[in-house]
Amino acid sequence: MDEVTTQFLTGNEAALRLTVALLLGALIGIERGWVAREKKAGERIAGIRTHALVGLLGGLAALLSEAVSEWAFPLLLLAVAGISLVAQRARMPHSRDYSITSLIGLLLTFCFGAVAVAVDLALAAACAVVTALILDNKREIHGLLNKLQAHEMDAGLKLLLITVVMLPLLPDRGLGPGDALNPHEIWWMVVLIASISFIGYFAMRLGGAEKGILFTSLFAGLSSSTALTLHFARLSRQNRELSPLLASGILIACGTMFPRILLYCLVIQPALLPRLVLPIGVMGVLLYVPALVIWRGHRRDTKVDRPERHQNPLELRMALLFGVLLAVIMVLGQWLKEWLGDAGIYLLAASSGVADVDAITLSLTRMSQGTIDLSTAVLGIIIAASVNNAIKAAMAAGLGGAGLGRRVALPMALSLLAGLGLAWGLSG
């Protein structure tokens, strides 16, 4: 390819990137212009034309920095900032608007133009679209902020702490007996369970109690079906008429545990899914179907409060306890595997399922990558889930009375037997 053709293609590429810079500026300008559409001409600091030109100017600044002087971009950026500040200062006595959002948007538009020309078109386009969405949803964002409570803000910050700060600091290598402990992977699993609990909490928070038992139970299964079982059992003791609906809610929450298990396996060890989908799916269906039958047969207009959440699922102390439990299970799993073989894994799964399914599920999923075979991991997960649901059925009967216990126990027993039978058959 000769030099003239190369220069022609380079010029075409530069023209294309400058066009994209212009269009990205126009995108943000459309949003800003729509917000200020009722103002008279000249009252707006920057509309669609100004933003489009600023995006183009950012692209030209990137070209000039490469072809003429490296000072071109910073000097032009300062010029745009200075002109914007002067315009804002002149407008303030008339509008008494002290917000600098529009000024930041204008500076971002300049930068997006430069990124489109000098860095990456897709990155510039993605940033521009996200910026336009943020600018366009001012009322919704402020509304969510007004509804946010202090402990919820604290939970979000703690989630960032354990994810962004702590996770990268942990060594990513095997430690301890048989190299069974990988601090980075253990903490990554802590982050995974904490994130799912966080999502489940806000799904319940935003859904509202008026959606009733059905909606609340479905999302409670993402975070704590045990907490919901305890709350609904106490509620059933206080109001016997609600026992059928509460039993339906408990079954739905316990059934939602099974999609959660599949999610863990999909993220950590996808090879488990073909063996796990059938028994887990059957166990979930055998809880969901009776729950919906009970719900349709006993539906009332009575509204029930969402389950009480006495503990924040993202308390750092709880996350650390979960990590310790996970590490202990992995060490015990390695020891029992060497001592008793697969029988030791099943014993560990049964004892762990009494208190928690997530820790043993994550441990067995991790161990299936090399320490144990896939069939053993599948059967261990089913055993843990079955024991956990059996414990919740006993809690419902003991705390909620015979009516609640009977409606919960029969589907739980069918689900348990079907899951164990299928898992045993598939492992053989």
TrEMBL record:
Residues 191-400 form the DUF4010 domain. InterPro entries: DUF4010, MgtC_SapB_SrpB_YhiD_N. Residues 18-142 form the MgtC/SapB/SrpB/YhiD N-terminal domain. Keywords: Membrane, Transmembrane, Transmembrane helix. It holds the Pfam family DUF4010. The chain crosses the membrane at residues 14-34, 46-65, 71-90, 102-135, 155-174, 186-206, 212-233, 245-270, 276-295, 316-337, 343-365, 377-402, 408-426. This is DUF4010 domain-containing protein. It comes from Halomonas koreensis.
